[in-house]
Amino acid sequence: GVVVGTAAAGGGHLGTGRDPFQVDERYRALVGSEFSSVTPENQLKWEYVHPERDGYTFEAADDVVDFAQEHGMVVRGHTLLWHSQNPAWLEQGDYSPAELREILHEHVTTVVGRYAGRVAQWDVANEIIDERGRLRTQENIWLRELGPGVIADAFRWAHEADPDALLFLNDYDAEVVNAKSDAYLALATDLLAQGVPVHGFGVQGHLVLERDPPGEGLAANLQRFADLGLATAVTEADVRMVLEDGRATPEQLALQGEYYANLVAGCLAVAGCDSITLWGFTDRYSWVPSWFEGLGAATVLTEDYVPKPAYDAVAAALEES
Ligand code: G3I
């Protein structure tokens, strides 16, 4: 059956704050009781886990992985090759291509190896293609300095470090058939033809009420990847909206429920789409308001943990499967 997960809110340990997952008992308990899969929201990103060239900090990520094990939950690892949230020592360092290759190899080997057998899926390559369907060869340090061949390398190194982990390409705005998802289909086809151990394609599912169609068209898109023999997943679902005076209207919340239901139904309609992750489950810790001024209410529970129509919509859509 399908596994339903959440992001575990975290990333506060770069400053003075600790992770909500570590300090909010109510939140933590709900992660364990409501979900069967968990993704560290930030705790495995380079900036957090590899803050110095010769130093790793695994405490916050370990906490999530240990919790998952205690609760019989699956862990999705996020992420290994990305253009964002890289430490300054990496982005601003002056390394030769050979040194960069070795840095990436060591990182992938160390991080994937540490969690071998405990992290079931990895978003190996995250957001490597832009909306026009082109590789992000400028912003992404790896693609810029090492060329597109580094994508295959990262998958191979991750596979060596944990042969049992399912290895994913992952991106946003790739839910439906469009230039970006077309480019991923071509990339996946090419990697598979080279024998690269790529196992899945994840669509993040960060939808916008006023921008996106209501989550339809997902199944038709994912089916193309299933036809290649790949697993698929919804990896970061949330549905943000424009708030009037900081509040969502009942109409907006009802519509949001439809978007969520369509994401769930779209995944369930495709054989091999076995994993749906919500990017957080309470507005209390959603990433949205701090990123988009005036937008919010993106998750299925209010800041006070009151279920919204979206909560029931997700439950009903899962029920129907
Ligand atoms: O570490 C500081 C902390 O010390 C300080 O107290 C706090 C104050 O706001 O900021 C903290 O860092 C922030 C961190 O989240 C933890 O809250 C960073 O500034 C902020 O950039 C970071 O944002 C994360 C974002 O990725 C960064 O790109 C979001 O939490 C996280 O939800 C978001 O997740 C991404 C996925 O990885 C990839 N797909 C898109 C998705 C949404 O942007």
UniProtKB/TrEMBL annotation:
Gene Ontology process terms (BP): xylan catabolic process
GH10 domain boundaries: 17-317
GO molecular function terms listed in the Swiss-Prot or TrEMBL record: endo-1,4-beta-xylanase activity
Keywords: Carbohydrate metabolism, Glycosidase, Hydrolase, Polysaccharide degradation, Signal, Xylan degradation
EC number(s) reported in the record: 3.2.1.8
Reaction catalysis annotation: Endohydrolysis of (1->4)-beta-D-xylosidic linkages in xylans
Family in the record: Belongs to the glycosyl hydrolase 10 (cellulase F) family.
Name of the protein described by the UniProt record: Beta-xylanase
Organism from which the protein derives: Actinotalea fermentans
